Every structure is written in C-alpha cells, then in structure tokens.
Amino acid sequence: MRTFAEYGELSETVRKALGTGRVVAGVERLPAGSKKGVYRVRLDGSGPRSVIVYRWADEENFWPGGNVDDPSDPFAAASGLAPYLAARRALEEAGARMPELLSADGAGVRGPVETAVVEDIRGGTLERLLTADPERAASVLADLARTLDLMRGRTAPRFGRVDLVERGGAARAESCEQRVFDRALGDLAEAAGRDPRIAAVRDRLDALLRESRGRVVPRARYGLAHGELGPDHVLVDDEGRAVLIDIDNLMYFDSEWEHVFLRIRFGPHYAALAVPGLDPRRTELYMLAMRLSLVAGPLRLLDGDFPDRAFMRGIVEHNLAEALALLP
C-alpha cells in the first residue's frame, strides 16, 4: 500500500517556502504524473489562494523497479530536483513560460524527499480548452508555436538531457537516430513478448525499422525538446499564454522527435504547430519508434500498481493499431 505525502508534511513544506504567516486550508493530490507527486495546497490569508508542490520520493514513482535514472541516456526517466531545475534554467534562457518557482528543497522536510513549490496556474490545460473554447485555444496554440520555435532555436553541439549537457557531458549513444533505433528494437522485443499481435509481425516491424534507420544521415546540432509535450502538459495562464509543465526530461535532441509526439498528441490541431524543414526520413523512423514506445512503455507501467489502468490500456491499444498501420 502506497503512502503519499500527508497534510503535516506539505504544510511544513509550504510554510518553509512562503513563510509562517500562510495557513494551509487543504491539500489535494492531483492525478498527474507517474514519477513524482503533484499536490495542490490551498491557502488562507493574503497572497496566492493556492500553490503546487512537486514531490520526488520513492512512493510517488509508479514505474516497476523505480525506472532508474541514468543521465547519460536521454530516454531514461529523470527523477529529482536537479534535472527539474536544469530544465527550468534552459527553458528560461530560451524564453519559455513555466509556473513560477517559489521554492526548491533538495533535502526535503522529512527524510530523503525532494520538493519544489511553484505557482498554481488555474486556467486549466490546453487539452480542455481545445474542446471548451476553440477560439481562445487557437491563440494559445499560436503562443505555444512561438515557444517551440524558441526552443528549437536554442541549440547545442551535443545531444542529451539538459542537466548532463549543462555539466559538459553528452549522451553515450553515437547519435540521436541510433539511440532511437536501439530503443525501438528493445521496445519491439518487449511488446512482442507481451502482445501476440506484435509478436505475429515482429520480423516485419524489425525490417521496417532497419530500413528506415538506413536512410537517415548524420546531424551535428540539436535543439531543446520537451519530449512529451501533449496538450495535457500545457497549462493556460490568465493572459492566455502557454505554460509548460512536466519538463523534467527536457533534452537537446532532434526536433523531429518533438514534432512526431506533437503530431500524435495534438492530432487535427497539429497544423498550428507544424514547421517547415523537418527531415522526412528522420520523421518516418521516429514515428514508428514512438508508436512502439507508446505500446511497450504503458505495458511496462501496467506491471505495477498505476491507478488509471483503463486509460493506460487505451494508450496501448491505440498506438498498437497505429504501429501496425505503418507496415507496408
């Protein structure tokens, strides 16, 4: 049985961040994220009505085996305050909007727990707005497109997670496309071992991956990529600006990887975010690799006790069908 943060711990965290004059009126654990806890803490008195607390702790991580953090692998699940703060620095320098950071504590107030207290953006997600108010959503999409351009223009000669590149390091793989290819082979093997529909066409998918990889030529510079930027990871502030969240895995990588995910998650709304000049060969490889990742990853998560199992199974079924549709 998992034990999440209690009222007393979060009250102490918020008082440490905002001062003893603020009184905590309530705490709600939000259904967001699989590697860290996200809590809305309501406040009495002057100042903001509420704040968000990010909490990194073993009990908040739903990935079986803890999904070990390996900074040298751009696809390893980042977990902890250090990669989060490095991502913030890179995005701030690029000009992206995020919830304001109010406090960060690498030691935690109770044991080996790390926390960050940030502004609570109450305008909801872009995902909700796309349905509720398409006209207003169009303006937010335009702002998100500008943010993505700023991120793409913030380049580095090495690829990898920003906390690693910031320290002068680089991913251990020889190239973005090789790391994507290697990961896709692993995802294919894992998915084939778990689902007979993938197993039945494993050889054909393997051949398509190898053929696509062989058409990609090397590249020498890389832009900032969120990696999981769906409309649920974009909040909307009072001024109608796009606010990025779940930034922990920010990396310097190929823009095609970012745009493949955007195309999948934004669907008919992706046209507002599309950019010219993307490499179609790289995009082809990355689309197949992304579909396989979105089958194998959720299946792996379902090995544990992730609570919203129907939602995760829906991701598996949709992306499995899309992966099979890519076969010639």
Describe the 3D structure:
By secondary structure, the chain is an alpha+beta fold. The protein folds into two domains: 113 residues, Phosphorylase Kinase, domain 1 (2-Layer Sandwich); 200 residues, Aminoglycoside phosphotransferase (APH), C-terminal lobe (Aminoglycoside 3'-phosphotransferase, Chain: A, domain 2), CATH 3.90.1200. The radius of gyration is 20 Å and the shape is globular. The strands form three sheets. It has a five-stranded antiparallel beta sheet, covered by helices on one side. A four-stranded antiparallel beta sheet has the order 6-8-11-7. A two-stranded antiparallel sheet has the order 9-10.
| SSE string | HEEEHEEHHEEHHHHEEEEHHH
User: Mean pLDDT, nearest integer?
Assistant: 91
Principal-axis shape equals: globular
* Radius of gyration using CA atoms only: 20 Å
User: Which CATH architecture of the largest domain would you pick?
Assistant: Alpha-Beta Complex
Q: What profile does the largest beta sheet have? A: 5 strands, antiparallel
Strand order of the largest sheet: 1-2-3-5-4
Helix content: 40-55%
**CATH class annotation of the largest domain:** Alpha Beta
Tally of strands: 11
Under CATH, the homologous superfamily of the largest domain reads: Aminoglycoside phosphotransferase (APH), C-terminal lobe
Derived from helix and strand composition plus strand pairing, the structural class reads alpha+beta
Can you tell me the CATH topology of the largest domain? Aminoglycoside 3'-phosphotransferase, Chain: A, domain 2
Q: Beta-sheet strand percentage?
A: 15-25%
Low-confidence stretches: none
End-to-end Cα distance, whole Å, is 46 Å
What is the count of DSSP helices, taking H or I runs of 4+ residues? Answer: 11
- How many separate domains? 2
